[in-house]
Amino acid sequence: MSRRRGPSPGLKADLRLDTALACPNAFDTEGRILAGKGTPNSELWIHARVYAARPDAGAVVHAHPPACVCLAQIGQPHRVVHNQGGAFHAGVPEYERIGLIRTRELGDLLARRLGAGIAVMMRGHGITTAASDVRTATVAACLLEESARLQLDMLAAAGGDAARIRAYTREEAESVGDQISPRVVERAWEYYAGVARKRPLGG
């Protein structure tokens, strides 16, 4: 995950997690390392180019949640199937190209696919979320994985027939679209932080 910081809209910090050690590096939207020790994550271009395309983004989260990967790999679009999924009522696009985002050009392609949205699914890879702050971007990532997991469970219960899933209509989804509002994010962050504290790293 990363957050934008400093007076320059191009400056932000990448938080790279190595086992139990977080090594922060600061770099700009062109991928130039500005400060910090250690080697930044090879996919820093995800963060750098999303910030370049999205002046409104204060934080970016990139993760590899299994249910989201699974949903994309069986060719199913994200559907709003529960209230918390209402955060994604505008839809979740898919970045279809496989492989890692290790160049500026690929970062730009991903940023374009994300557009002005909250999240993008990355085929065979994971997800990326962008929001105003770290907590909102993190909660959005957690909610998307929860939503994808429920959709997979529903598909299994329906014998693989997606038509049997009672996905929310656009109007229904929009009516519960406040799931990443500041008040909801605060409560959700407390919950997920509590769960994380009880789990070993990588568990």
For this entry, give a set of tags.
203 residues, alpha+beta, 8 strands, single chain, 6 helices, 37% helix, L-fuculose-1-phosphate Aldolase, eight-stranded mixed beta sheet
Question: Over all CA atoms, what is the radius of gyration?
Answer: 17 Å
- Which structural class do the helices and strands define? alpha+beta
Give the strand order, joined by hyphens, for the main sheet: 4-3-2-1-5-8-7-6
Give the ordered list of helices and strands. EEEEHEHEHEEHHH
Q: Report on the biggest sheet.
A: 8 strands, mixed
Helix content: 25-40%
Beta-strand percentage? 15-25%
Describe the global form.
Answer: globular
CATH homolog superfamily:
Class II aldolase/adducin N-terminal domain
Instruction: Write down the CATH topology.
Output: L-fuculose-1-phosphate Aldolase
The level 1 CATH classification is Alpha Beta
